[in-house]
Amino acid sequence: MLNTLNAIFAKHRHQPGALLPILHDIQHELGYVPDLAVPEIAKELNLSRAEVHGVLTYYHHFRQSPPGKHVVHVCCAEACQANGSEALANHAATRLLSGDIKMEPVYCLGLCSIGPAIQIDELKLHARVTPEKFDKLMQELEVRS
Amino acid sequence: MNDLDYGTPAVVADRKVTLNIDGVAVTVPAGTSVMRAAVQAGVMIPKLCATDSLEPFGSCRLCLVEIEGRRGYPSSCTTPAEAGMKVRTQSSKLADLRRNVMELYISDHPLDCLTCAANGNCELQTMAGEVGLREVRYGMAGANHFTNVKKDESNPYFTYDPAKCIVCNRCVRACEEQQGTFALTISGRGFESRVTAGQNNSFMESDCVSCGACVNACPTATLIEKTVIAKGQAEHEMITTCAYCGVGCGFKAEMQGSEVVRMVPWKDGQANEGHACVKGRFAWGYATHPDRITKPMIREKISDPWREVSWEEAFTYAAGEFRRIQEKYGKNAIGALVSSRCTNEEDYLVQKLVRAAFGNNNVDTCARVCHSPTGYGLKQTLGESAGTQTFKSIEKSNVILVIGANPSEGHPVFASRLKRRVREGAKLIVIDPRNIDIVNAPHVKANYHLKLKPGTNVAVLTSLAHVIVSEGLLAESFIAERCEDQAFKDWREFVARTENSPEAMEAQSGVPAGEVRAAARLYATGGNAAIYYGLGVTEHSQGSTAVIAIANLAMATGNVGREGVGVNPLRGQNNVQGSCDMGSFPHELPGYRHVSDTTTRELFENAWNVKIQSEPGLRIPNMLEAALDGSFLGLYCQGEDPAQSDPDTQHVQEALTAMEFVVVQDLFLNETAKYAHVFLPGASFLEKDGTFTNAERRISRVRKVMPPLAGKADWEATMGLANALGYAMHYDHPSQIMDEIAQLTPTFAGVNYEKLDRLGSLQWPCNDDTPEGTPIMHVDNFVRGKGRFLITQYVPTSEKVTRKFPLLLTTGRVLSQYNVGAQTRRTENVQFYDEDILEIHPHDAEERGIVEGNWVGIQSRAGDTVLRATVTTRVQPGVVYTTFHFPESGANVITTDNSDWATNCPEYKVTAVELVRVDQPSEWQMRNEREDKEQHRLLAAVGLV
Prior knowledge:
The complex is a heterodimer. Chain A is α+β, with helices and mostly antiparallel strands.
């Protein structure tokens, strides 16, 4: 982990306000921001552990534990809610109770006119997702892995 | 009991604005908040997240006001007052808004006011009353933060109960703005927002340093002292002064009868301005610790059991023994040690007793072993044996140079000021062998850290001067106008020599020349530059030379005589400045006047009605030597523990054993008391009236909040001893002693208790010219007239590394323990630090097969001891470090009897040592343990153990 961190730190060394870019890079590399990374980030940026922790926990995007093998973000923002995302999220939560696909809420994926929207593994967006369509997508995902 | 809270900090501005608040016209400095202006107009606006020790935050939405011509309801804490503004703080709309806000707060708050520790002193409760909250429509059934919440009780002094938290952020901001530790944060967002220590740690696991600023800032019982939980709210308070370090913080002792409930930093205390550290704030429980000895005791031999006696019997016995020794061995065979922990009045009395009743000048003080080189060096160059500034002066500094001091541990409240100034943009130069906290702490980073080898201060300081001279950075006109010409020319010629260049010194000091040059340029050209230094400067064979070198740098760059600059010794003990001022050195009468000066001597002779010797008496090390020679055989030792604190312990122990009669006056049976024949019980700072003088020359009142446990304050005991010796002393109150001091000492002429009570504190010189004291010294002229540059030739210490002793040991303190630890070891502070640890660099550890937690034997030319090791890069290769808080560590068994050439201040900071892994304590430690048990047995005879 230390090597990864040092490489990321080196990349951002002279950048003002480097905390968020560093947190993004760490999550990108490791899938989450481990507790042990926090004191290192603090030392690098001349901050305290508490300050880094405060920022890390403020943004729902940042994870503090390893993610599932796959992560499905279900949009729970207003437009998707109006199109039934609450029911979809409930369905998704039940459907994904076991297994290594994790569901996480997200607030707006930018597909407000064609909700409810989901995003799989921060890669592929899917619009107008019904519970049926969701199950089909999950099945494909499970087969692939 | 709470002070008036203005809600936002005071603003200093030349421009004033006048506004109208609820029909009252009020004029305030531009930039003042509407909230503060309102308080000034006598209008209290409801608030929760605002308090005048913190910058406005605007989160609680309770302080909303209406401003004519403006839309909406701005928060008064974040709105600056403007000329002509018309503000309404009460209307039915505002009342509705405030009630609604309060209703939301209370809907998520446990309603247990009657059994809550903050009951009667809770801002939430008060505000709910002020806004007239009558019902909570939302019920308490929904999601909340107060059911099934775990209280954090990890800190020994306060608890964190998240159930009561309203997330006003005051604690987080206090930790950041006031203390500068940044140990707290708000984790999560929205409803999940919670105050969190570290990374969701307990307070003890976090970076918290237990300064108590968060507890002070908390408007509810979320963060509250355990003593308040145990005892309840206080019913009266007394203003007094902390008895730990030389910062001299003002405190309010909050009392129930004669019992302290809590110590709260005093907002109007000019040294600390409402801030505190873990020692002053919380570690006062030693005052009523069961180890306190409260009856005078005597014994004929140190191997005899102690016997409790009356005060009168103790005085008579002591006086008889002192006179017997004088008759047998001569007048000069006895002497006394003055305490830097006692009050000015008490220190004055002890030296008066020596000079008037003993009839000699054999009086010395523990300042001998800490800041005596400061007294000498600053007197020789600037003309006065004291620091030049106020602590507040640092707010005007652009460059701060810290050498041989670790303020975060030793002077924490000053460290907070320093860190704040660095966060505001001041540049920082640190000269220290170790990576101390301020080298790299949250939001504080030294621009230059000159990591020198122990013992090379003078090399580095002189090479800084070399750069200033050779690169044309001198303050020519300041020097021409204010300093002695010939002395300056001699000095300039000396420092300009190639041998004093950073390049030439690099081999000695280990500091890269480029860094020295850069630091010198910054110090000389960076604006207002201030130097702060501590025992890492003075406790060397060239301690006085280093102090002189510091004064030279300040004069050479014109950094003396105004705010933001100066030469500032960070004095170790609460009254070390005062004990020196009071004439406790063998060569000086009060006010630093030499005993050989006939006029001064006559002044005191007439006042005291005795003849005073014109020759200086013995210094501590001379007393010890003379004891071994058989010419010094009686000692009165008040509030000092040389058997633990002085270097070369075995030598000290031998000397004490050789004395025929030793009187120890202390709170506890300390190490020196093992060699005593009479024990006089001392009184803590809570048990007496008097004054302490801090590192800023600030004289502050100490007030008696409880009766002395032993029936007498220390000044009363000294008086009793003097009277038994046949020298009449009579004072009804310490104020009369201060009046005598003022009458005999020009720098104190204007000091009296009435004025101290009125003004809070006074910085000497205080006399007819400066009736309210002197915050900044040497403003137009140096005290000695012209400033005097002196040559500072670097002479390496004789304590050198060899093949047999290849490492250098240096020593220091930690935040939670204080000096010999007699007090802090008897508090819960042991939870933070409970043994002296040896720091060793990984490289040196590996070479010797030492790993974390190993016991290591440390051997020097003077002796050996055993400590537990920690492997850390805080120290550089070749250097090891430890503290000296625990007597069983025997840190001073290893230190040598090398000392400063001018003042005999011991060279604690450099000892050549070798380390080996061991599995049992040293011989000295085993003997010490046996002796400890034996002394406890002797104490058991009086049923005290």
